[in-house]
TrEMBL record, chains A, B:
Residues 37-56 bind DNA. Gene3D superfamilies: Tetracycline Repressor, domain 2. SUPFAM superfamilies: Homeodomain-like, Tetracyclin repressor-like, C-terminal domain. It comes from Streptomyces guryensis. PANTHER family: HTH-TYPE TRANSCRIPTIONAL REGULATOR BETI, HTH-TYPE TRANSCRIPTIONAL REGULATOR RUTR. Pfam families: TetR_C_6 (PF13977), TetR_N (PF00440). Keywords: DNA-binding, Repressor, Transcription, Transcription regulation. GO terms for molecular function: DNA-binding transcription factor activity; transcription cis-regulatory region binding. The keyword Protein biosynthesis does not apply. It comes from the Bacteria. This is TetR/AcrR family transcriptional regulator. Residues 14-74 form the HTH tetR-type domain.
DNA sequence: AACGAAACCTACCGCGTTACAGGTAATGGA
DNA sequence: TCCATTACCTGTAACGCGGTAGGTTTCGTT
């Protein structure tokens, strides 16, 4: 089976890369991107730092893979989102602090000058705002409170999600993230 | 003038420290705390790295001074805040991206493990939520939309401010931070 | 004039960092 | 069986980092 074995090798390599990306997510959550050393990531998958560089030639390349991984992860078609699914997602997130912490840390770093993830986040947020505006329009039409348009409401929705994450990460016992998010949604529902 | 000159020396020293803190704010805005080197801060005030260590014996000590500086800055008695003043503050902030960037970067870093500013932010947000709840109560009493209490609304208010800051820092031309914040306040005013 | 402290500096240490160079063992296809 | 590729490793270069040690100059006080 010529192709079968070739596949096996490729699959194994791909699995290794995925394993590394997963480890990188963890280390970034713990130390941020700047604080995450290749050696620390490598150690977590049983490699030397130089062994890791065999899979990702530079640290930035690893970060790119991490970001792509996330893109793939929540690439749900925007049309399939509904507001109550957003609430469920927030609830789900509350059970996986690791990933939230990774991307909250990255988002914070990304506003600094010349950060390799800056472009990514700028583009992503532009796109997420668009998606959210579409979701809001599908759900409420133009009947949002105070004559708000979906386009003007979307940044608020996104801001609430992100802002709550920071408060929750810093002090999970004082902040009921899913509950607060539902409160916000209720605020939007008032106009209907 | 024995005491007068003594004061001059002390004042000059204090001024130097303030100058250093200001420089540190800038460098942290550009590179985050982990990425900010003492040498970079020192250079900005015309000192060597070791000369800076004469004023702040460790890097952490400098960070503490930076955080204290901020505390002092917005130590307005909570009772004097009003909701429309919050809107003004957001508007004012939109003209000073540097400081916002500093503390947005620090907030992002602070959720990582063992970050020296983590305790500070945890305590600060707890306190800010309390303040905001008081402000909301003074303004709206218990008549918030949907039967929301001030205590449950405060985290949302804080989250919107922080979340908008990130979106705005990443893409100032796409995000009207003060306008969006006013939109949110209008949402709260609906119930009155 | 003499002294003590403050305000710096030079020199240096030890460590951690990314990345490059080059070698080696295993693997799998021709 | 041979050979190329893959998957690592050791070694090392080159640098930046926070922090220490110890000296020197400046300055205010006595």
């Amino acid at each position: 089976m010529p192709y079968g074995d070739a596949m096996n090798a490729r699959v194994r390599s791909e699995e290794r890369r995925a394993e590394i990306v997963r480890a990188a997510l963890e280390v970034i959550a713990e130390r941020g991107y700047r604080g995450a050393s290749l050696a620390a990531v490598a150690e977590r998958v049983g490699l030397t730092q130089q062994g890791l560089l065999h899979y990702f030639p530079t640290k930035d390349a690893l970060l790119v893979a991490v970001l792509k991984d996330r893109d793939q992860w929540d690439a749900v078609p925007a049309t399939q989102w509904r507001v109550d699914l957003l609430a469920s997602m927030v609830e789900y997130n509350a059970m996986r602090p690791g990933i939230i912490q990774t991307f909250s840390a990255l988002l914070g770093e990304s506003v600094t000058e010349g950060h390799p993830a800056r472009g990514y986040f700028t583009g992503r947020y532009r796109q997420v705002r668009e998606s959210m505006a579409a979701v809001l329009r599908a759900e409420y039409g133009e009947r949002l409170p105070n004559g708000l348009t979906p386009e003007r409401t979307a940044p608020l929705l996104v801001a609430v999600m992100d802002g709550l994450q920071y408060q929750w990460l810093l002090d999970p016992e004082s902040v009921d993230m899913p509950g607060a998010f539902r409160d916000f949604l209720a605020l939007l529902g008032e106009g209907a």
